[in-house]
């Protein structure tokens, strides 16, 4: 068969296959149809006559060796820009050159940071890892480069020139100076070299810990009852346990998974100890009281603070009663129990079996819902585009073009949604390229991001069907993506999600509120076979069910946040496990299990070191924004435009609390944050928490 005939055959076959579902339902929009279609092998991989355009359209990245080429080019350009910055008179060009220098390195490093964890080819992952280390080392040296810092200081010290800068440019200049300061630019040469050495050491320790935190543990088959072997992966005479199996209905499966998966690993324990010591040493070297104080500069929280009081008493009592009812011979509530028994309580009260909902949440319908929501709020549409040869790393990756009704093309979102071997089981948003106004070309550099989920593949008889939790996660991650698309800043250093960590989660968590509102859900939730809409009472039950044991869920986040803060506070002469044990008892209440080390699975210690509280802070802000601005009409265009103007458009170019104040048209107090955090829990809890904090 000729190449052209084969292409025609594949195209026709695809149309026939996808029409099997569409015959029975109302017509999907183009983006909905694209995501509900069964993915076929890319035409460029089936017919080998199209040259590879390289990953993300970067020509050098058509092979692993291309990372070395891209790295060398970025470093060469960096040196040329460095000479330009250091020799130019102070002015706006100083900030533009700084941003251009940063952009050249970030475009390679950010792309490599994604490829090293997500590419299915180990040779690509290894090449990307080398690039991350090489560029990371250069960045740390630049952050202690005295001549480079002097050129920026000359700008900030010259009041007449500084006063002529627009607020965004001035903010970016201050942020670049802040990077110098926290890296130790004020130190003498010997201390600066020590700071760079510590930064490079941290890069290595962080990578080692992050990789190790996801590795499975194994145990001999003979050590556990034979009848539960089937719940775990096997390797010869061993059983491999790569997670907590928290949703299992079998008490023994949950217990064994918990004890084995969290069993201490001596190398990982040493790695975490070294990581925390190194962070503390660096913070002290550059003049901070602790690493937590260093990390919280520029955030909404500003300094480490106290956590909320315990919220869990009533929830744990309900779970214990349910466990007693189901298993009278094993009634003590243990740390491996809450996820399962909270689910049982929700299902019993509200009949929210996921299989009842999934047929209404096909991936295509959910994407159609997101497209409709963004069109109504912002005038933005999502259009599916077939990627070029070699542009994507796996055949089932979708490419979306984001277009505004009057502003035109805004950027690109690559959707890596499906499960595969060696892919992290974590829902993530990656910035591949930040948006910026390119002074050198006069064009706007469009942002590029990746959304990574772990959804099941479609089958021969059905598209990918999402559980309510999967649907909510999709909306959450798309909130990050739209922040990147709509944060159309002049400088990439502050584009989109490049803002304070405790603000970055606000747009994503706010999307969870939209995902739980029937007026939004009713626009897209249709049965994939019959086209019938999801009944309103099912959405109501689902929303109400989230309040069941919500206090325990929130308290778990408080425990994680407290542990993170303590680890990054003043060093303590005891093990990380002893600290975990005491913190768990104080902030969570369920007993510590001997010979376990949950902290070695706490991967957020890397990206969210001393900032894990950000999820709680962002949830409180999102709750306030939803209730004050969107609850009356979640599809209101005027409010959507205000949200974009006040919160999304600035990226990290404006103080986060000022953005919140602009949206709410008032400055929230600490009491407002606390009330917002607990207001979605059971009414009994809201009364309890208000009394306990008054």
TrEMBL record:
It comes from the Eukaryota. GO terms for cellular component: mitochondrial matrix. CDD domains: M3A_MIP (cd06457). Residues 245-677 form the Peptidase M3A/M3B catalytic domain. Binds 1 zinc ion. Its EC number is 3.4.24.59. Belongs to the peptidase M3 family. This is Mitochondrial intermediate peptidase. It comes from Esox lucius. The gene is MIPEP.
